[in-house]
Specification:
homodimer, 349 residues, Rossmann fold, 6-stranded mixed beta sheet, 14 helices, DNA-binding
Chain lengths: 349, 349
DNA sequence: TCGTAATCTTAAAGCGCTTTAAATCGCCGC
DNA sequence: GCGGCGATTTAAAGCGCTTTAAGATTACGA
């Protein structure tokens, strides 16, 4: 039941403090000018009245909105986490965030439109799927930051993690544990998979294990993981069941884990598994998956930074920020020794 | 790189169409008045100029904002789903949604403040944790709808599912499959658990199995499920390992599943498991968990409906909408017969 | 004591759109 | 040919806040 007496306006505060609305405006926004006496009077009046500025009006009056628009997939917990960090980073810089969720009935284009209606000053797109050309077109009219995806679109700022390096870390970790037969379960067709696969190959080469390269078809979800597990276990002669697997992402790793364990294999005893994304599910005590973190906090900060540099710092050249991922070691990886001593030897070939 | 030539204003459209700004405003919002000729001229001019109304300005001018504010936990996929449906429902009624995420550094109060700053006309709170008193206070000044939680707060509209009925459905399903020893793994202390537990007890009574009531301590996450699985398997004499378990929610069910299977039990062969929420994870092919759905779409529609009824329908009495949940049968439940024929008999007592 | 600079304060002009109240235009009947 | 009426159109007054430019005060040095 909204209050009948409409909320107090700036004018009311001014009247009560016996000063002009200009002074009130200045004081309330902490701008220099008003004397200490005026400040106090205004603050007191505002407090008494329970005054709260009408953002709509102030946005209209000042040319700026100080709003950052974010598009995201609400169903993705990774995006959820990123959003948390974006909020925090924006807060610190005096910006507010408007989120525009993508849903079945609301594609990326629509979500962006909505953000523009709100007059957001910059668009932060989480894992945008818009074609590069469209991103570039958008960037001609607005500030846009693509997060988590490489983009060859003029004028678009990009903030992403070095996926190849990330996979490399995983491989090094496994080799360090004594593993030699390390398979990589691929992701869906696309630039991200390519990069991760490269990371895998290069790491093996670097470690003198180039010959052991073993890439299995995969995908980006649990089912792909299950399928990959099956194919790894039923392969023909020259190929062997690896002692460790690096999966395209955590979901795939999850499918792998599930299937391997149902088949009676012990993880990490018989097979070590590493995921990618360090998603919330990887952190669950029941999953406890070793995974590569894309450092969402750092990405968030970098993205907001990119936006504010354009807005307040006068930057006009697009930037491409590449962050170093890091490995989070948990319970699905262990020294290879374990395998030899308690594995059930369910290998082929 | 935002465009230099500032975006066209209403005035520009008016000039180009050779009519007044009033006419343009009327036409663009589809209000009655302008003649067909005027309409056409305006639409054409607007199209030519690529005109897009400045929401900020129009919000200020008209008294209404047509904005619904939603607070949610971004990490919850259930909230994510709900949000999708809320968006859709709001869209249909000509409202726009502003979402205010809860994060570590941004509690519910803060999130609500933010929504008020945006001048949202109604607050839709997803599973609010604010104490009833605070909800009631908020409701004195604003329209508030609590979603998914019972609230004894004056003036607050509530939209929730009949949890007791939901658990009842699960129990009936299991009994229909021939199960008799059906345990319930409880949730965390609170009204929701109480209601679900009641639903469990009442259903058993109704089916003449009151004596078989078997409530195990639980919680609201995977770990609680693991713990519950352990306790179910190691209990003393008179108690037996049940042939079916209804869990407080899907996460608990997941923990149960994981632990039971690692212990070599077959689900649903040895034990049938039912979750609650019909979350995305329950639907994963690798999980395929029978679960009770709270019908998020229906909740979303009801919530938006509640808000618009107050805003446009003139309703002033609070409503309490209780929706009927439904059971989604998947792969973790099967006739008890299965158990007898292929169970490994790992029971106690 | 007076002029001038420095410091505060404020009147007033918007920001871009909506809306009301009044003006305009046709058209009809007498 | 004129008064009148309904259908359109529009001038103008805001919505609540910011900001600029001018005005008021005070402070100082000469």
């Amino acid at each position: 039941m909204p209050s009948r007496p409409s909320r107090p306006r700036l004018e009311d505060v001014a009247a009560r403090a016996r000063v002009s609305t200009a002074s009130v405006s200045l004081v309330l926004r902490g701008r220099p000018g008003p004397s200490a006496a005026t400040r106090e009077a205004v603050l007191e009046a505002a407090r008494d009245l329970g005054y709260r500025a009408d953002r709509t009006a102030s946005l209209l009056a000042r040319r700026r909105t100080q709003l950052l628009g974010v598009t995201m997939d609400v169903r993705s917990t990774f995006h959820g986490e990123l959003l948390e960090d974006l909020q925090a980073a924006a807060d610190e810089r005096g910006y507010d965030v408007v989120v525009s969720p993508l849903t079945r009935t609301r594609d990326e284009r629509r979500a962006v439109e909505s953000l523009l209606d709100f007059r957001c000053e910059a668009l932060l797109l989480l894992g945008p799927r818009l074609p590069d050309a469209e991103l570039a077109a958008l960037a001609e009219e607005h500030h846009v930051v693509a997060i988590g995806r490489r983009a060859r679109a003029a004028g678009v700022d990009v903030v992403r993690a070095a996926d190849d390096v990330g996979v490399g870390l995983a491989v090094e970790h496994l080799v360090g544990l004594g593993h030699r037969d390390i398979a990589f379960v691929d992701g869906p067709r696309g630039p991200i998979s390519t990069l991760r696969r490269q990371g895998y190959r290069h790491a093996l080469k670097r470690l003198g294990l180039a010959d052991a390269a073993d890439v299995a078809a995969g995908g980006d979800d649990e089912e792909s993981g299950v399928a990959a597990a099956e194919s790894l276990r039923t392969r023909e002669a020259p190929l062997r069941m690896p002692s460790a697997v690096v999966a395209f992402n955590d979901r795939v790793a999850l499918g792998l884990l599930d299937r391997l364990r149902r088949d009676g294999l012990d993880v990490p005893g018989d097979v070590a598994v590493v995921g990618y994304d360090d998603s919330l599910v990887a952190r669950l005590a029941t999953v406890d998956l070793t995974s590569v973190s894309q450092a969402p906090e750092a990405m968030a900060v970098a993205a907001v930074e990119a936006a504010t540099q354009r807005l307040d710092g006068g930057r006009t050249e697009a930037v491409d920020v590449v962050l170093e991922p890091h490995l989070v070691v948990r319970g699905t990886t262990a020294p290879r020794g374990d395998h030899a001593t308690r594995g059930d030897g369910t290998r082929e070939g």
